[in-house]
Amino acid sequence: MAKVVPGRYTAETEDSFVVFMIGMRINRLWAVHRWLPVFMAMPGMIRELYMNRDLGFKDGHMHFSWRRVCLVQYWDSFEKLEHYARNGQQHLKAWRGFNRKIGTDGSVGIFHETYIIPKGNHEAVYNNMPVFGLAKATSHVPATGRKETASRRLGRDNDPAVPTPPNPVQ
Q1: How many Å apart are CA 160 and CA 145, to the nearest integer?
Q2: Which parts of the chain fold into alpha helices (H)?
Q3: Which residue from 134, 114, 137, 111 is spatially nearest to 124, judged by alpha carbons?
Q4: Nearest Cα residue to 22 out of 92, 73, 85
Q5: Quick check: 60 and 72 in contact, CB under 8 A?
Q6: Cβ pair 135, 9 in contact under 8 A
Q7: For residue 25, which of 69, 70, 74, 108 sits 20 to 30 Å off, Cα-Cα?
Q8: What average pLDDT does this structure show over 96-110?
Q9: 24-76 pLDDT, tens per residue?
Q10: What's the whole-number average pLDDT of the chain?
Q11: Hey, is 57 helix, strand or coil?
């Protein structure tokens, strides 16, 4: 279990990066023979990425819901992500297998979303959390001073962390 780090922290990076979300949705629950192989292909891809950090993969985490699995990943660049998608041994094998065995039969859906984040256009806060998400993929630093609020982390303003309540009407 990950150790909880007390206090407020943020993610810090001086570089642009890519957030990539990829996942699957079980559309026909009883078609286990269709969706289980898709699900089982994911660990091999993740293992390949963690073992070959020069591919541009920074880190990631998985989320489960009722019929859906989603992996949120952080990458150095879109070019490295695309290179892996088209050349990564585990991904290419899974991609071709999905198209050959499932294609458009509707039993299981797959999706991905790609977000290119320019330098200085991100912010994050983690309060009493293990090192997680973007902070795990980049640097985990205290959210103090210029990093205390979302606006400050984005370099926008100097508003206080906790707004002063308005004077009561008399």
Answers
A1: 10
A2: 32-51, 78-87, 89-101, 133-137, 150-153
A3: 134
A4: 73
A5: yes
A6: yes
A7: 74
A8: 91
A9: 999 999 999 999 999 999 999 999 999 999 999 999 999 999 999 999 999 99
A10: 92
A11: strand
Q: From the centroid of its chain, how far is CA 159?
A: 29
Neighbours of 54 (CB within 10 A): 7
Dihedral sign computed on CA atoms, order 157, 137, 58, 108: negative
CA distance 136 to 124: 12
Count of Cβ atoms closer than 10 Å to residue 6 Cβ: 8
Per-residue tokens: 140: 């985990």
Q: Find tokens 């879109």 and name the residue.
A: 78
Tokens of 76: 């150095």
Nearest to 76 by CA among 155, 139, 33, 18: 18
Task: From residue 145, give the alpha-carbon distance in Å to each of 67, 93, 99, 158.
Answer: 42, 48, 51, 9
Question: CA 28, 41, 81: angle at the middle one, nearest 5?
Answer: 110
- The position carrying tokens 């997680």 is 132
